[in-house]
UniProtKB/TrEMBL annotation:
Entry protein name: HIRAN domain-containing protein
GO molecular function: hydrolase activity, acting on acid anhydrides, in phosphorus-containing anhydrides; nucleic acid binding; zinc ion binding
One Pfam assignment: HIRAN
Organism name: Pseudomonas fluorescens (strain ATCC BAA-477 / NRRL B-23932 / Pf-5)
Keywords: Hydrolase, Metal-binding
Signal peptide: none
């Protein structure tokens, strides 16, 4: 027999073997390999014999029998079923149009708070002169320590302790109609002593000034450190 007849007869016999493999019962095949091939076909679809031979490392003839048995039990799903499954899926909702941007409201500017001088101090009546030393003690400073500490901390007291104090009459004060309040830089820092306030009011009245008035004089701060933690006020006024 010539060489081409031998090749032809071999290919013809292998074709006959592969065509008859589908008619072999599954019991005649390797059960373990058949289960493995079925699982593979169920997951990834039908396999060709050469794919099984490469994956399972078996002969081509054995792979042909396994492929025929596994593919026969797991046919390829038809396109009609696939289209039916796609038809059962709910249609995707159409995207909503983007919301229109809302313009931010402009921030309202806060009104500036009036300084204490602008809030209630009367116009300046006059200034007290005479070169008196700042040795007149003000009373009631304990009620105004926040303002006094603010004044003290704003300066270097060792070299800059010169202030201007405003003495303001308070005729409507419910505790003392002769009360004279003391202000520094618009902050109330205390009062003149009761007896001194009465004498001061009389001296101002003798000058023809009545009602609510405001006089200015020099002042210094004292204390605020060591054994004198409270800040005090000393005015340039003649001692009675």
């Amino acid at each position: 027999m010539s060489w081409w007849k031998r090749i032809f007869s071999r290919s013809e016999s292998s074709t006959t073997e592969s065509n008859s493999a589908s008619s072999l019962p599954a019991a005649d095949l390797d059960d373990d390999l058949l289960v493995e091939v079925k699982n593979l076909v169920a997951i990834t679809g039908p396999k060709m014999p050469y794919e099984l031979a490469r994956l399972l490392k078996i002969s081509h003839a054995r792979a042909t029998r396994l492929a025929a048995a596994a593919n026969a039990q797991n046919p390829t799903p038809s396109r009609a079923r696939t289209s039916d499954a796609q038809a059962q899926q709910p249609a995707a909702a159409s995207p909503k149009p983007p919301a229109e941007p809302v313009a931010a409201e402009p921030k309202k500017k806060r009104a500036k708070k009036a300084t204490p001088v602008e809030a209630g101090l009367p116009p300046l009546t006059g200034k007290i002169t005479g070169g008196h030393a700042c040795a007149f003690d003000v009373v009631g400073e304990s009620y105004y320590q926040p303002a006094l500490r603010r004044l003290r901390n704003g300066r270097h007291m060792a070299t800059d302790n010169d202030f201007v104090a405003d003495i303001v009459a308070e005729p409507d004060n419910p505790h003392d109609p002769n009360a004279c309040a003391v202000y520094i830089e618009g902050f109330k820092v205390g009062y003149l002593p009761r007896d001194a306030a009465a004498d001061f009011q009389q001296q101002v009245a003798d000058m023809g000034v009545t009602g609510t008035w405001r006089l200015q004089t020099k002042a210094k701060l004292s204390g605020g450190w060591g054994d004198r933690p409270m800040v005090g006020v000393l005015l340039s006024l003649p001692k009675s």
